[in-house]
Amino acid sequence: MIKHDIVVVGGGLAGMRAAVEAAERGADVAIVSKMHPVRSHSGAAQGGINAALGNEAEDTPEAHAYDCVKGSDYLGDQDAIEAMAEDAPRQIIWLEHRGCIFSRMADGRIAQRPFGGASFPRTCYSADVTGLVILHTLWEQLERFGVKVYEEFFATSLCVEDGIGTGLTAYNMRTGELELVSAKATIFATGGAGRAYAKTTNGYASTGDGMAICYRAGIPLMDMEFVQFHPTSLKENGVLLSEAARGEGAYLLNKDGERFMFKYAPNKGELASRDVVARAEMTEINEGRGENGCVFLDLRHLGKEKILERLPQIRELALDATGKDAVDTPIPILPGMHYWMGGIATDKDGATNIPGVYAAGECACVSVHGANRLGGNSLLETIVFGHRSATHAANYIKSVGDVRPAEKTYKAERDRLDGILARTGGERHPQTRKALNTAMSDHAFIFRDDKDLAAGETALRQVREMAQKMTTMDKSKTFNTDLVGLLETEFLVDISMPVMMGARNRTESRGAQARTDYPDRDDVNWMKHTLMHFQGPTTDPKPDYSRGVTVTKFQPEVRTY
Amino acid sequence: MSFILDIFRFDQATDEEPHRDQVECHIPPTMTVLDALESVKAETDGSITFRRSCRSAICGSCAMNINGTTGLACKTRVDSVLRSDNTVAVDPMPNFQPMKDLVVHMDPFWDKYTRLKPYLQPADKDSDHALERRVSPEDMHKLVAVANCVMCATCYALCPVVSVDPAFAGPAAIAYAYRFIEDVRDSKRKERAAQISEDYLWLCAHCYACSYCPKHVDPQDDIIAVKRATIEEGLIDHPGPRHALVIAKTIKATGMLHETEVIQGTVGRFNIKGLIKVAPFGLRLAMAGKIPPMFLKPVPKVNEIKMIFDTLEAPVLA
């Protein structure tokens, strides 16, 4: 049995920030991750991280908070948003002190670029590899503090004894053994679940592991219907082209070469918030002004020098996938599934309804993003709430005695995995994954209505029946990615119904939820979060609307860009 | 249209020897080798095993040998590597122990980083700075190329020096040492140079195999910069730097490589033991009538060569 005071599940930005904080506070901390930390999908974040440093223009945390609240379409909890905006400059300075390679202004301060929905140039960056440089900085700090990493350990379930979190079970991919990992506090930082959709900017590893594990253990998922579709993903493979392109001045064009965004956002144009831009693109495409189902991202006027200096990665990604060089050709793009505003319901310290269980980063829903996240806030959320959850957990563990090893949970989980490996005859899990992807992409996309969502629910009920019988071909103990893939599909299936049901129940349009049958925001009835409680693998979740939105100083207003 | 993936198969727990499977794949060849592997895993054989995550060349997971050359499967289009017999061969990276199919044991590679103490070590305390440490865009720019390294180990797999001496740090770790050596915020330039020298920096033969970098980090340039830094830090009491410096010295002085002096200079003029060790080599050269001359007459206009050295401010043996 493995035993630590604090175990962090996930080695991306939120997980590593949490682990470093716990280590600096002297806690015995370890990371459990299904891959090496530097492989985490945080590294694919390109454009930057927001903080009101005020280096490029007068800026304040209050202005940052206001932009987030407006961006969230007033669904974000304002106390949490204020805490994040206020902590942001401190966390950026901390990262810089630890060696992060930020792009600089002529006077040596951290450079900042404009981003969608932001009142000022607030996004700190490193060319278009910001996630990667922060990922490396945090991994360096793991090396510095000697934090133990259980690498290629796949978390399968949360252990709860007497109502308290006591760690988790994890499948050691190298040996094929299930391990019991005991901990006084467990922090989930497992990222998003983009692989529920057919086309996504997310990597293969974004399978909602932490969300599903916590959900099954009795922690509600919150605001899952709010799924962000990024305005600029490549048609060929769904790969992301950073918002930094538009931050640096790129245009969006329809097939007639028209900069269409000013029709939809007269003031901000291309730099409106992502939900607005994604809807505008889909409208252009649906009304026949797209080409092969795409509109165009045009960088040509930025000039080769600026593209190579500030946006080299996206130029190469577009070149690899399409054969088109953004230096002299507009790139066909379309909205692609990108980010989960929803997730494991937490308070602003990352704590859940189960003592000793925390969540931070994309897998969590604090909520700071509400109905729509602003670009540059996801990296910020990982750092701020990774830090906050570890701070809280480090205090919490002082009040807890030795936890009882969850032998029963461990044995049940081992039997379950053995049972899956022993299954024969049924369909293999990639078929279930495909059916799930189709259901989500067809019914829970940008524009939604009741009829479509009802059909989506029916489709998902069929998918979850399929999921009970999935089989693997690989029965071996060494690095069984076939089994891991099956377990990931189970996770994705579990967290998808909360999306579909949440979207159907919410009879309004707010942020990323655009209902064609309810086109307006309804502040009278819907200034509240959606909570979904797990009722079993083949039963619909139980919705719960008891949690209202926390409003401090920003009253809901009409939202235009 | 279909093609064949010719896949290395091995399970360390059960197999004495690897074997190969030929699996038909039905995706358009404009897609990537990773897409092809995903497709055959989903459609044909779920036990085919490889690492992958981002499929956009930023996570570094899917480095493997494709038709004998290491690269990222997600960045390699099938039609760019498809052989005339309509196959693509995929193998685990060389210089690593295979675990299962295309998955290898990466730990020796990560250990090379750990030895570097790979984290910023400034001279002052963080708490001395209320705001960021100021760094000019030019100074930060030196780190930009290496900041793009995704630690995929392609260069490490391609490195012939690693293949003969696994203790060699390898190109990726040396580039990461460069990342700190050239960081104006760091205070351990000399210690870092010493550590990387101890990790056999000077074994690098400058073959430029590592210039085949999927992320254009081009560690071969960083390796030269790190060697230069070790000389600047005075860490020259070692055959590696002595060899480099004495070659430069003889060329500067004569316009030619003065082999006799190079041998003495590399081994050390007063290193009697070392000289005795190379004596049989000298004798064999003499027997073969290939003994280089003791004294070299400088080439005409040797002053112009001296000028080149002075212009470049190239270090030479004192």
The CATH level-2 architecture of the largest domain in chain B is identified as Orthogonal Bundle
Q: Helix coverage percent of residues of chain B?
A: 40-55%
Give the strand tally of chain B. Answer: 7
Mean of pLDDT of chain B = 94
Assembly of the depicted chains: heterodimer
The CATH class of the largest domain in chain B is identified as Mainly Alpha
Structure description:
The complex is a heterodimer of chains A (561) and B (318). With 561 residues, chain A is an alpha/beta fold. Chain A has helices at 13-24, 61-71, 78-97, 130-145, 209-216, 244-247, 261-264, 274-286, 304-310, 312-322, 377-396, 407-422, 429-443, 450-467, 481-505, 523-526, and strands spanning 2-9, 29-33, 49-50, 112-113, 123-124, 148-151, 153-161, 164-172, 177-188, 221-222, 227-234, 251-253, 295-298, 331-340, 343-345, 357-359, 364-365, 447-448, 514-515, 531-533, 542-544. In chain A, helix 1 (13-24) packs parallel to helix 11. Chain A is globular, with a radius of gyration of 22 Å. The mean pLDDT of chain A is 97. Chain B has 3 domains: 3-104, Ubiquitin-like (UB roll); 107-232, Fumarate Reductase Iron-sulfur Protein, Chain B, domain 2; 239-312, no CATH class. Chain B has helices at 33-43, 78-81, 107-114, 137-141, 144-147, 154-158, 160-164, 171-181, 189-198, 219-232, 239-254, 259-267, 272-287, 302-312; strands spanning 3-9, 19-25, 63-66, 69-72, 87-91, 98-100, 103-104. In chain B, strand 3 and strand 4 form a beta hairpin. The longest helix of chain B is centred in the C-terminal third of the chain and has 16 residues, at 239-254. The radius of gyration of chain B is 24 Å and the shape is globular. Chains A and B meet through helix 3, helix 4, helix 10 and helix 15 of A and helix 1 and helix 3 of B.
